[in-house]
Design a protein that fits this description.
This protein has one domain: Tachylectin-2, Chain A, CATH 2.115.10. Helix content is about 0%, strand content about 45%. The protein is globular and about 45 Å long.
Length: about 300
């Protein structure tokens, strides 16, 4: 997501110390006033909030029932199961993108709801954004919105063998207005893309999750990145390998305490939000928030 609201974060030693209810997959983060909001995969599209950036409380989900259009695009969609949202603030409105799918297929759709106030809790269904089926070249899941250096809007999306795509977004409809361009592929899995522009380096950065998710401490998810001088690519890893050819520079592969980090969201250029599986809690998926830094060569890192 692209953060246009306050960028004041609590003081931390690189990684924030979090308490409360922090069980999440695929978190999307934004700050509204003094409240930190996290939207995540789960029944009805899960919502967490914190008034201090450290202690999180679970709120009501976005959906109490399915919008009428879901079954038309994803007939076998499992009840209220919603995947990998993204929250984007633009011109006074919060745009919450999300995906619905059937596991293991490309029968998927990205949807959109909007509100003028997250804390107000009233969301308006804006319908389908983009859809796919098993004959499509892409899988319409894992949306992420961004604004480029010229002020144009783009959405990255896609997953697995079909790779990551980007498409231009209309400022009036907030839906695709052109072709989709493939940015990255990776054998063994690639998904959960986040695309950001760093004005200090002049590059666009494509963050991705590679490997396998959702297997607790046996998950092989890793967070990787590539960069490009253009929003439509080509993107390259540090070693010069094109992301279209499987290139990706891993920046988080987990550790003895946290396994399978992924589902990342980049807030501005100074914060990375993600999930990882807690070894201490038998593989429970937990929210992690860390300050994001940039080295002298213009590559991101965090502790």
């Amino acid at each position: 997501m692209f953060l246009l609201v306050s960028s004041a974060f609590p003081a931390s030693a690189a990684t924030w110390s979090l308490t409360g209810d922090t069980n999440v997959h695929d978190p999307a983060y934004i700050k509204e006033g003094n409240t930190h909001w996290v939207f995540s995969t789960g029944s009805g599209l899960q919502v967490l909030y914190s008034t201090n950036g450290t202690h999180f409380v679970r709120s009501l989900p976005i959906f109490a029932s399915e919008p009428s259009w879901w079954d038309a695009y994803v007939p076998n969609h499992p009840n209220l199961d919603v995947w990998a949202p993204d929250i984007f603030y633009y011109n006074g409105t919060y745009y919450l993108y999300y995906s619905i799918s059937t596991f293991g297929s490309k029968v998927s759709a990205i949807g959109l709801v909007t509100t003028n106030s997250i804390s107000g809790g009233v969301w308006k269904d804006q319908g389908m954004v983009i859809s796919s089926n098993d004959a499509s070249s892409y899988n319409a899941i894992d949306p992420n919105l961004m604004q480029d250096a010229k002020g144009n809007l783009w959405m990255v999306f896609g997953s697995w063998s079909n790779g990551i795509y980007v498409t231009a977004i209309s400022k009036s409809t907030m839906k695709p207005t052109g072709n989709a361009y493939r940015l990255a592929t990776k054998s063994g899995g690639i998904e959960g893309a986040s695309l950001v522009y760093n004005s200090s380096t002049g590059y666009y950065y494509l963050f991705v999750s590679i490997g396998a998710c959702c297997q607790g401490v046996n998950s092989t998810y890793q967070i990787a990145v590539g960069r490009s001088a253009s929003v439509t690519g080509p993107f390259y890893a540090k070693d010069g390998t094109a992301m279209k050819d499987g290139g990706a520079t891993v920046i988080d592969s987990g550790n003895a305490y946290w396994k399978g980090p992924g589902g990342q969201d980049i807030s501005g250029t100074n914060l990375i939000v993600r999930h990882a599986y807690s070894v201490a809690e038998n593989g429970a998926p937990k929210l992690l928030i860390s300050d994001l830094y940039w080295d002298s060569n213009g590559w991101p890192y965090f502790n």
